[in-house]
Amino acid sequence: MEEAAGGDHIAIDVDGLSTELKKMMCSTNLTMSSKCCIFRVPNILSRHNPKAYTPNAFSIGPFHYNKPHLKATQKIKLKYLRGLISRFQSPETMLTQLTKAIVEVQNEARECYAGPIDMSNMDEFIKVLVLDSCFIIELFRKFTWKDLREVDDPIFNMPCILKFLYHDLILLENQIPWFVLKRLYNLTMTTRIEQSTPLSLLAIAFFGHSLYSRSFPSVEALKMFVSEKHESKHILDLLRDSLVLSSHIRKDRYYNFDYSQPMPSATSLKAAGIRFKMGTSESILDIKFRKDEGILEIPPLEIQETTESLFRNLISLEQCLPNCEGIITSYAILLDNLVSSTKDMEILCKNLLLRSMIIADAVGINTEECSCMTISNTLGRLFRSSAQPSY
Questions:
Q1: Helix axes 122-144, 74-85, angle to 10 degrees
Q2: Name one Pfam family in it (predicted).
């Protein structure tokens, strides 16, 4: 019995409330699946730049399915699906096989997505997985094997569409489980060269320009990466793996540093006699400090249109995925500590450790000025709002 503010007594059914709470606990799945790897980005991470986490043109998977501004590109995905199955003697039979392959793993695929999915039934979920997976597979194939492209190809004939894809396919909320992609890729192989080319190799080839610090990795280096006994969870996780597994981090472990003791700024390091040198490693993560020589060696980071989105989503993946080592987060924090002023930026630009690949002519200013402005704006937005780990 509770007493209200006016002195009246209000009867509370304690047993009834207890029973309702018990029902809520029984009716709600309170345990996250161990397979869960595709998340909606928490507001605490996305609030500073929501566009970096939102698809511009293509919805991939269930989270952004049926969004009005993304419906126009469904025709492109359907065209790619039709092109894929048309290479088989019986397109209808192949489409049936593709659908059956997804039906067999639908429950496992659903467990990969955290939280509710706005779909009427599992049939809709299966259709999305078939269409989006085949679209991605065909896209990667056409990127590597140009003879597969049709004369009226809607993507490779329109550079702006390709730019949208470089952004949309790296978003944490816009993913398909990797085992689903791999399953359909293996099912649709038609040539010997495809049979000897892993899907991961095609994916890295597609995104390679935005991942590596210098030239594209050698064929031997890529084969070494794909031969690793490690199964990525989805495309974004594959990109993270390619950075981590191609670096020396796993062996040397020198990249784990104490967040409470930040790296001094580039200006402070230079004043202390530290010299900066451009690293030659293919991985941007291979930062080395040669104590005896007083040299900090950093592979160059090229700032492109998708750089901010890529890093934000990689950091979000590390923050959301249980037991995921914050290696990209650590890299972001290190750069954030190094660059705290315009002078710091100039030091790193001068040593070619930061470079902008965005065309300066578009805004009619000096290339060097544009490079520093672009880098400053991008790094400022990214690292000040998302580099700090959340606990």
A1: 70
A2: DUF247
- pLDDT given at position 359: 37
Q: Is the pLDDT of residue 260 over 70?
A: no
What value, to the nearest 5°, has the Cα angle with vertex 374 and ends 385 and 217?
90
- State pTM to two decimals: 0.85
CB 16 within 8 A of CB 90: no
Cα–Cα dist 48/34, whole Å? 29
pLDDT at 214: 53
